[in-house]
């Protein structure tokens, strides 16, 4: 992706504008990311109009969105009750007797006409078909090395968000937040002013800032304490925004090895992985953010595809 944009706009614009806008979504290195796996619409624009700028001007199906993924519509969308309500709604639809929480699958064992799921607590469940919805490191851990070899070296980045609540609104620049260039000497990679994006989530007169930390190649986050992360982000806020007020509270949410990196060759690796699964584990389907998009709409679309394939498999349409 980096070379694609540098060839057309120069290295300076790529590092200061393009990289934080596009690769920041994936917490990745723009010079290692696959354009076709992340933002294929740019290549489509060139194929339709001959050059990028003209292609983006044409009122066609070449549309950009805020996440770069295929299924997102519009900007700054969330659920009124918070994203937790999505999980709560899913749980409410599942039969209680079939829902197992706090149980980790450590191995999937192929048996004649079925699969056995071995849990860390020693219990075993038998299934006719399986959907694995997880990042690819989990897939590698529970299936054999030969099948998962295409994703053997696929990196995952550790991330964290830091939320700061303030008793009153500070004089922030106009907008809804900012992004930080990868080359800048800051711990945080972005900041969202929640009261500006989603006013219903913040009490009147209060302020909530959400900072984002972590990018590919960073390792300090994996060993840092919550307090160290908080102090680093507060130092960023003071330098970049002149914000010196002390927050009412701060909360760190960690996502260890959570963000898949769509590096060059990602789509080819994905095709090989899917072929291996079909050959070695018929009836096992893989979905999640390691496939074709890290956004929630992409994960939902991938999950719907997997569920439809499971139904077809159980009905004998897929062998």
UniProtKB/TrEMBL annotation:
One of its GO terms (biological process) is heme biosynthetic process. Keywords: Cytoplasm, FAD, Flavoprotein, Heme biosynthesis, Oxidoreductase. Belongs to the protoporphyrinogen/coproporphyrinogen oxidase family. Coproporphyrinogen III oxidase subfamily. The keyword Zinc-finger does not apply. It is found in: Cytoplasm. One of its GO terms (molecular function) is oxygen-dependent protoporphyrinogen oxidase activity. Its EC number is 1.3.3.15. GO terms for cellular component: cytoplasm. This is Coproporphyrinogen III oxidase. Residues 3-310 form the Amine oxidase domain. Coiled coil: none annotated. It comes from Listeria grayi. Involved in coproporphyrin-dependent heme b biosynthesis. Catalyzes the oxidation of coproporphyrinogen III to coproporphyrin III. It is an enzyme of class 1 (oxidoreductase). NCBIfam families: proto_IX_ox. The lineage of its organism: Bacteria, Bacillati, Bacillota, Bacilli, Bacillales. It comes from the Bacteria. Its cofactor is FAD. Pfam families: Amino_oxidase. The keyword Cytoplasm applies. Pathway: Porphyrin-containing compound metabolism; protoheme biosynthesis. It catalyses: coproporphyrinogen III + 3 O2 = coproporphyrin III + 3 H2O2. InterPro entries: Amino_oxidase (IPR002937), FAD/NAD-bd_sf (IPR036188), Protoporphyrinogen_oxidase (IPR004572), Zeta_carotene_desat/Oxidored (IPR050464). SUPFAM superfamilies: FAD-linked reductases, C-terminal domain, FAD/NAD(P)-binding domain. Gene3D superfamilies: FAD/NAD(P)-binding domain.
């Amino acid at each position: 992706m980096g070379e694609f944009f540098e060839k057309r706009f120069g290295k300076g614009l790529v590092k200061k504008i393009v990289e934080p806008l596009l690769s920041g979504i994936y917490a990745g290195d723009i010079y290692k990311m696959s354009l076709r796996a992340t933002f294929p619409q740019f290549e489509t624009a060139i194929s339709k109009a001959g050059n990028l700028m003209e292609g983006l001007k044409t009122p066609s199906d070449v549309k950009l969105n805020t996440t770069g993924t295929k299924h997102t519509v519009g900007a700054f969308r969330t659920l009124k009750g918070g994203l937790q309500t999505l999980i709560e709604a899913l749980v409410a639809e599942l039969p209680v007797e079939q829902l197992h929480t706090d149980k980790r699958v450590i191995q999937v064992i192929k048996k004649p006409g079925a699969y056995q799921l071995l849990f860390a607590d020693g219990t075993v469940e038998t299934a006719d078909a399986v959907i694995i919805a997880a990042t690819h490191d989990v897939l590698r851990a529970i299936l054999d090395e030969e099948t998962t070899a295409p994703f053997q070296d696929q990196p995952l980045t550790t991330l964290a968000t830091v939320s700061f609540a303030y008793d009153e609104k500070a004089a922030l620049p106009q907008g809804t937040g900012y992004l930080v260039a990868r080359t800048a000497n800051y711990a945080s990679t972005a900041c969202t002013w929640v009261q500006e994006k989603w006013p219903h989530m913040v009490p009147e007169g209060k302020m909530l800032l959400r900072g984002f930390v972590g990018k590919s190649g960073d390792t300090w986050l994996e060993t840092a304490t919550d307090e160290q992360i908080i102090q680093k982000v507060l130092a960023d806020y003071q330098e970049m925004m002149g914000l010196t007020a002390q927050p009412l509270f701060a909360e760190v949410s960690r996502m260890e090895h959570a963000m898949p990196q769509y590096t060059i060759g990602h789509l080819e690796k994905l095709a090989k992985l899917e072929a291996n699964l079909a050959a070695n584990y018929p009836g096992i389907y893989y979905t999640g953010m390691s496939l074709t998009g890290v956004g929630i709409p992409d994960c939902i679309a991938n999950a719907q595809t997997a569920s439809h394939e499971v139904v077809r498999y159980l009905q004998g349409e897929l062998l």
